[in-house]
Amino acid sequence: SLFSEINLSLIEPYIDYLVENQGVHKVFVNGTTGEGLSLSVDERKRLAEEWCKKGKSKLQQVIVHVGCLSLKDSQELARHAAETGADGIAVISPSFFKPTSADALRQFLQEVAAAAPQLPFYYYHIPAMTGLTLRASDIVEGIEETIPSFRGLKFSSSDLMDFGQCISKCPSHWSQLYGVDEQLLGALVMGASGAVGSTFNYLGNRVNSLLSAFDEGDLRQARTLQVSLSHYLTQLNQLMCQVSGLPLGPPRLPLLPCPGSKAQSIAQRLQQVLGKQKI
Question: What is the DSSP string of the chain?
């Protein structure tokens, strides 16, 4: 279907919306929200090129996810990300033939990182999608010995004990990016240095307020904001269309679109929660 094809013309207005309306200046491209694993290698390259090109003067950082089931495809995307001007690359674990040990996964990550050794490299830990049972803290321990470009992880798991152990083992110059929107406050308490999230697309201002409240020691306000964020964690694509006005289109099969009336109803409730604040 024509409507499941990527539409590069929307990237620039998408960037403008994130920067001007949501206070978002750093992006993570071709990840879970972007359905990166449902796209072809060529599509992922074209999207990475457009985000890097259009975001060059507007965004502070563009990290491109290059993880694939195939090591060769991941290496190809890593090299391409370096050529196209990305600020970093991230990789998830293969999820069909899964690594059976932390060492096996580190070897896979090492081979991908070696294809673009000049780029900061991040491990993307998302066990709910990969089915991986290995702990992130075991995977990142000593990883700089084999991956000198390693600069941190995107941790998308509710296991805050594992996340805390990652932080305790990691050098201060690594980024500890948390990826479960509804538990962001808990991750901040554990020492997260930043966050990557689906809802930040249309709730970026609220998340920035939560971060500020936490930094200022106002935990009551931070908790209030965290609870308000937790209501809007489903059907991102249609909700983002409703809130932003950008025609981002439907998801790609096997995902199915949310009925328009339901998305509109959720968007209206979101507007009520945020009041008259520009979203």
Answer: -GGGS--GGGHHHHHHHHHHHH---EEEESSTTTTGGGS-HHHHHHHHHHHHHHHTTT-SEEEEE---SSHHHHHHHHHHHHHHT-SEEEEPPPSSS--SSHHHHHHHHHHHHTTSTTS-EEEEE-HHHH---S-HHHHHTTGGGT-TTEEEEEE-SS-HHHHHHHHHHS-TTSEEEE--GGGHHHHHHHT--EE--STHHHHHHHHHHHHHHHHTT-HHHHHHHHHHHTT--S-HHHHHHHHH-----PPPTTS-PPPHHHHHHHHHHHHHHHTTS--
